[in-house]
Predict the structure.
Amino acid sequence: MSRSETLVLKRRVGSAASASLGLAAYEATGGLAGLRRALAMSPAEVVAEIKQSGLTGRGGAGFPTGTKLEFVGSQTRCPKYLVCNAAAGEPGTGKDRLLLEHDPWAVLEGMLIAAYAVGAKEGYAYLRGEYEPVYDLWDRLLGVAEQAHLLGHGILGSTFSFRLQVVRGRGLYIAGEELALIASLEMQRPTSRPRPPYPAQSGLFGQPTSVHSVETLANLPVILADGAPAWRRLGTPEGPGTRLLTLSGDVCRPGIYELALGSASLRELIDDLGGGVTGGRAVKAVQPGDGSSALLGAGALDCPLTAGAIREAGSPLGTGAVLVYAAPRSALDIVTGLLDFYAEESCGRCMPCRLGVLRMRDTLQRLNAGQGSPEEVKRLAEIGQSCLGRMSVP
Amino acid sequence: MAAAQRGFSWQAYVGLAGQEPSVALGEVFRLLGRVQDTFGSVPRCVVVDVARRAGMSEARLYGALTAYPGSRLLREA
């Protein structure tokens, strides 16, 4: 095997610290060092450290996390809220569950660091409805954390207080989008809305809100414990750090692999870590981001795994859910299947998504059944073009 | 089938909701989730009660609840 994983976020997965909710085991493996260091600094210094690390959001949009924290931190209105988005339900993604289940303390520590940095005293962790065992685990975790003075008043003997609530979603894909998630917590009908105002200005209950994905938050303890320069050593200067890549589809060993950004190409991920394509077939197409990212042909396989290089190849790295499709699969089938999902899960608020996706799926179904015409193919391209960039959830 | 037959009891619901007479807005989603986890579904009487306590209309609450494929609502009781 020419490539192996770089274990940073996954370093506790499968270890004694992850098997139980042992806080002592977590501390023994370097846990809480980041939070302790953060609490000794001023919130602005913590934000500066995260900015210096160059960490970008791992949820899909890839926005710089430090800047996002700064927006909320600079708001003078109180209360402010911190929300952990653990509701991402993109087709093919599974990394959140791995972290929430196998390294929950690191996610909690990340939330505390982010809350301290922005000055939030209350926070919500919004779990996907399907994560029932994870929800039970987090319920117990909150109890243990309160006893250990990790939640509530005076965290670890400081003046910082934080209250966390764990909320379980109800199987709705759109709730993974930050504005729909906020609407869901407010008991509004969960739909997205146009931006601005951004959640940093007017989020949960109209207050400044910082929303981060699980993987982003899990990176914060590492950055604060080792310092930004040490964390930057992994990955590339433009995209530092590691990414959790959920490899699935026609591969021999699907799973969640952690790689330093830019350390391997898509081909190396599929062949070396994923054990190659099942049945030794040729790769036909790859979705490097998730179900919503563009299909890349076999020509893009040698593209290094960095957000920039993948974007240049024509697709976002998104949530890092790599879906592999091998030779006999029909591209029509793949796209129809995905559109089925998006048509079903559309929140119905904006026209291109509500109607455009439905029409594209219907047209593809007709093409699949051999009832298409050249005009229909042309129409399909037109609909696709007119939807592009006009949906409120891209 | 009445809600009571599905294991719902008003007392158990009040226990879940806490003794507070009002429901803070951020608590509504969580509370209804816990009601469903405990009783298997959300009976109508709970929706009526929660809407009143949270100061929102029943229609708005139903509008939000029915957006979730995982919502289980009971018409009776």
